[in-house]
Specification:
With 482 residues, this protein is α+β, with helices and mostly antiparallel strands. Helix 8 crosses helix 9 and helix 10 crosses helix 11. It starts with 13 loop residues before the first helix and ends with a helix.
Length: 482
């Protein structure tokens, strides 16, 4: 607003500040950048063309520009689709994108001041004002949000440096984080596809494979569907619009075969023919790519002819059991997919991070998830049960410390269940609520949320789809239409 006293500064009203004001008439320019770093000159300000000759000397100074940055997505369903960056509204997030004086706007874009060489604020011609732009990797953005030393020199002469709190010296992906990436890589980098391993059917199969020797025949897997009660299949009958429970079971069996084939081809499941040597008693196993008509025992070398009615067995890959069972990666995978699924805009994450407090690295925190989701900086700690968190004071202290240092917009504590014993559930529910209430008091300004997976709708129910729909499932639907 402009005051009656024209010598006073023109300031926006509180009403204007509170509203998300944007003018579609603002001058815009589209650029397609192929390099990781780019510098471009700001166009002449549009309203300067209305200046009369005697006021041309006013065509100098500074302006403000807003950058809406898009990045191509490798897995986008539309060819050439783009993914607009929407980053957390905090000072340090802008460092990854530009070395201009900048901030993150309310809409999650970068607002910055173009600069001239060797000058910050000065009477410089408009054509000398430039903007530097970097297209960072997702990990680079998270580093700017988490690490402290990145900002020390950058904000040395910036009065906003006090807004950046004490953070971490460095972080690294843990062994568990690398294995999580390995699991996602098996599914061609698609988290949504890898998440089928977290549904109730495959969770049970994977956890039964902890000794890496458990194997399952197709008959055993399909019989587990036959044993399901009508009540446990009612939601499938309803959602899939099937006639009865029998049709639901037949549908699931067809989908199971498609899913097994899919997981075998990805290397998640290993398809084997096993036989016990009649001479030395050794249990031998052959996979699809090693089986022959005549096979030798690996111990005594006695020949074994492959029967025509052999039965295939399926077992979970040792890498999958190591990543998802031995180190509770299955709950972490479910938690990450759940958080990514309940939001709708661009998101990226790093799993299982070691947060180093100093150069020596002998003092650190561990966090199961760092992410940017819908423009919010998110941190999450994942536990198999709330009891392991409640009964361990150091776990509570470490969680409080890492959330204080990270200062995320939202901090999640995600547990698969309250405890292993059903009778103790209410007791641990009460204890957890009390501890979280105390943490919220100590970390005012940070949104602390708790998710118990067993209370999430559908977590313990059979999914509508055990996995991808293939030719067997489609053939089942075709028969229904006849």
């Amino acid at each position: 607003m402009v005051l009656d006293d024209f010598n006073s500064a023109a300031l926006p009203s509180r009403r204007t500040l509170d509203s998300n004001f944007f003018s579609e008439a603002a001058q815009t320019k589209d650029l397609k950048v192929y390099e990781r770093t780019h510098k471009f000159v700001v166009d002449d300000i549009d309203h300067f063309k209305y200046l009369t000759p005697n006021l041309y000397h006013l065509k100098s100074g500074q302006c403000v520009s807003t950058l809406n940055i898009e990045k191509a997505k490798d897995d986008y369903v539309v060819v050439g689709g783009f993914n607009e960056w929407k980053i957390p509204r905090r000072l340090e997030a802008s460092v990854a994108f530009t070395d201009n004086l900048a901030k993150v706007s309310r809409s999650g874009s970068i607002t910055l001041i173009p600069k001239a060489s060797q000058q910050i604020f000065s009477e410089v011609p408009q054509h000398e004002l430039t903007i530097s732009l970097s297209i960072p990797g997702e990990e680079d953005v998270l580093r700017c949000l988490v690490l402290e030393h990145i900002h020390r020199m950058r904000f040395k002469h910036d009065m906003r440096k006090n807004l950046v709190n004490t953070k971490y010296y460095d972080f690294e992906l843990s062994d568990k984080g690398q294995k999580h990436r390995g699991i996602i890589s098996l599914f061609n980098g698609m988290l949504s596809r890898a998440s089928i391993l977290t549904n109730s059917f495959w969770r049970e199969i994977i956890r039964a494979s902890i000794d890496n020797k458990a194997s399952f025949s197709l008959d055993k897997l399909t019989s587990s569907i036959d044993q399901k009660t009508p009540e446990s299949l009612a939601h499938i009958v309803d959602k899939m619009r099937l006639s009865n429970v029998g049709e639901a079971k037949n549908y699931l069996k067809c989908n199971l075969k498609d899913t097994i084939e899919y997981l075998v081809h990805l290397g998640v499941l290993i398809q084997e023919y096993r036989w016990r040597c009649s001479y030395c008693g050794n249990n031998n196993g052959l996979t699809l790519d090693t089986i022959r008509v005549e096979n030798s025992c690996t111990i005594c070398k006695k020949q074994h002819m492959t029967p025509i009615d052999m039965e295939w067995k399926y077992r979970v890959s040792p890498f999958v059991t190591s990543a998802l069972i031995e180190q509770n990666g299955l709950t972490v995978l479910w938690a990450i997919d759940h958080l990514m699924g309940i939001f709708h805009h661009q998101a990226f994450y790093l799993p299982e991070i070691n947060l180093l407090k100093s150069h020596e690295g002998n003092d650190s925190n561990e966090i199961d998830l760092l992410a940017v989701i819908d423009g919010k900086f998110v941190a999450a700690e994942v536990k198999l049960s709330a009891a392991s968190f409640v009964d361990n004071c150091s776990e509570v202290q470490n969680f409080t410390d890492e959330v204080r240092r990270l200062s995320p917009d939202i901090a999640f504590l995600i547990c698969e269940q309250y405890c292993s014993e059903q009778d103790d559930t209410e007791d641990y529910r009460t204890k957890l609520e009390k501890i979280i209430s105390s943490i919220r008091e100590n970390l005012a300004g940070i949104d602390i949320k708790v998710i118990i997976a067993s209370e999430v709708n559908g977590f313990n129910s059979l999914p509508l789809e055990l996995g991808p729909i293939g030719q067997r499932t489609n053939a089942f639907f075709d028969r229904l239409d006849v």
